[in-house]
């Protein structure tokens, strides 16, 4: 069994989220004991659902306690005493408490998780409970949320598409700006001039320009951080691109100033070689794109790569770079962009930190990053977890739903459960 477990783990480690798997495992026990047998015994379904609900709720309350203990241990400088870290060694940092019990009640109301007899609480059930718990705590805790950062592709708009004027996320972002919140779009898409970002984001930028409700200062509270953490532009309604470049001194972190050009090119050379090796080994019909601070492969004829091919190319590049000297000096991000693979200099931890610095030392607990790529390897929103709180969405529609939830709680507070 142990060997089988280890083999499975080695095969799938990069496709798993350890905390979600842990919670899933805990909820599986009451599911097996209380829900599943009723599928065969004809027992009273209402009683079954009530019992499962009670057990699931208790477990979520216990995990909420584990997270509070974890936060307390980190704050006391004794991270090794965290019970949660003992149970889930790879777990990261939590910037706020998570209202998991209340979030479970809310998601159970919406998704009827406790009423299911054949399908156990799933990865998506737990991802959504965690999202709601994070939103509930941000909307109702004392330290008000100051900054919301968004990934671009799959979070604000469909993969490779643009933010068009009919996108329902626009009204939500305008609402947040009007309440004095700062917004950052932290995307891997790396362009050196504002005109390219205007092409991708025009629906939002034009709505901000035309808004009669936003003050000039509020309009300027939206920034774009492209290439993970490489180029910053600020919303500027009078500029022809609706965006103006922000000088590096105003936003770059001290640690980024120490990067040498030689190291950057050296890292990109290693990455490019690895991508070319992958192209050859898997006979990929791909074109290499080399930029100032990124290198990637895209399909040469507009076709589709298999997910396995994309992941293989990402993990190959990542491993080689991790083992290289320059990869130990420079932060980088190798990721699967859906139908392309990119290696960028910098990452979204730095991207979110730059936004925090630019808007005046906003803290991690005052920041929410919304993205779709949170697996530990091959996904580029993952590192943002080190800079602030996060919400993991699966589509632009889910982003809108999360913002609706946040806005509703900011306006009306938490309901009684
Ligand atoms: P994100 O989801 O907003 O982070 O955007 C990721 C996508 O941007 C990638 O999948 C690429 O298709 C595209 N992209 C364009 N330029 C770059 C670059 O320089 N680095 C990484 N991705 C890029
Ligand atoms: Mg994305």
Automatic annotation (TrEMBL):
Source species: Sphaerosporella brunnea
Classification via Pfam families: ISN1
UniProt cofactor(s): Mg(2+)
EC number per UniProt: 3.1.3.-
Single GO MF annotation: magnesium ion binding
Catalytic activity, reaction form: IMP + H2O = inosine + phosphate
InterPro entries registered for this protein in UniProt: HAD-like_sf, ISN1
Protein task: IMP-specific 5'-nucleotidase involved in IMP (inositol monophosphate) degradation.
Gene Ontology BP terms: inosine salvage; nicotinamide riboside biosynthetic process; nicotinic acid riboside biosynthetic process; nucleotide metabolic process
Keywords: ATP-binding, Hydrolase, Magnesium, Metal-binding, Nucleotide metabolism, Nucleotide-binding
Similarity annotation: Belongs to the ISN1 family.
Protein name: IMP-specific 5'-nucleotidase 1
């Amino acid at each position: 069994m142990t060997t089988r477990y280890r083999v499975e783990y080695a095969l799938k480690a990069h496709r798993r989220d350890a905390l979600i798997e842990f919670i899933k495992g805990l909820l599986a026990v009451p599911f097996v004991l209380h829900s599943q047998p009723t599928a065969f015994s004809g027992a009273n379904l209402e009683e079954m659902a009530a019992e499962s609900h009670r057990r699931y709720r208790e477990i979520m309350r216990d995990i909420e306690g584990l997270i509070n203990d974890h936060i307390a241990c980190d704050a006391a400088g004794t991270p090794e005493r965290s019970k949660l870290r003992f149970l889930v060694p790879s777990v990261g940092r939590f910037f706020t408490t998570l209202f998991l019990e209340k979030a479970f009640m809310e998601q159970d109301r919406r998704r009827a998780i406790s009423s299911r007899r054949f399908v156990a609480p799933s990865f998506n059930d737990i991802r959504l409970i965690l999202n709601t718990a994070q939103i509930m705590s941000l909307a109702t805790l004392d330290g008000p949320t100051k900054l919301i950062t968004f990934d671009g592709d799959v979070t604000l708009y469909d993969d490779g598409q643009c933010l068009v004027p009919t996108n329902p996320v626009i009204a939500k972002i305008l609402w947040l700006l009007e309440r004095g919140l700062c917004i950052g779009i932290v995307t891997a898409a790396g362009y050196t001039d504002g005109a390219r970002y205007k092409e991708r984001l025009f629906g939002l930028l034009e709505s901000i320009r035309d808004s009669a409700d936003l003050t000039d200062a509020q309009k300027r509270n939206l920034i774009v951080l492209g290439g993970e953490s490489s180029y910053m532009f600020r919303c500027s309604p009078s500029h022809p691109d609706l965006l103006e470049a922000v000088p590096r001194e105003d936003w770059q972190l001290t640690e980024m100033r120490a990067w040498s050009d030689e190291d950057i090119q050296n890292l990109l050379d290693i990455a490019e070689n690895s991508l070319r090796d992958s192209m050859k080994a898997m006979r990929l019909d791909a074109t290499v794109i080399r930029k100032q601070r990124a290198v990637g492969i895209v399909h040469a004829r507009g076709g589709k790569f298999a997910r396995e091919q994309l992941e293989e190319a990402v993990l190959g590049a990542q491993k080689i770079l991790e083992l290289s000297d320059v990869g130990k000096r420079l932060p980088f991000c190798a990721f699967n962009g859906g139908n392309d693979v990119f290696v960028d200099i910098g990452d979204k931890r730095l991207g979110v930190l730059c936004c925090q610095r630019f808007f005046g030392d906003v803290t991690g607990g005052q920041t929410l990053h919304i993205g779709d790529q949170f697996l530990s390897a091959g996904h580029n929103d993952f590192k943002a977890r080190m800079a602030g709180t996060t919400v993991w969405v699966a589509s632009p529609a889910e982003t809108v739903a999360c913002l609706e939830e946040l806005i509703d709680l900011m306006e009306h507070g938490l309901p009684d459960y």
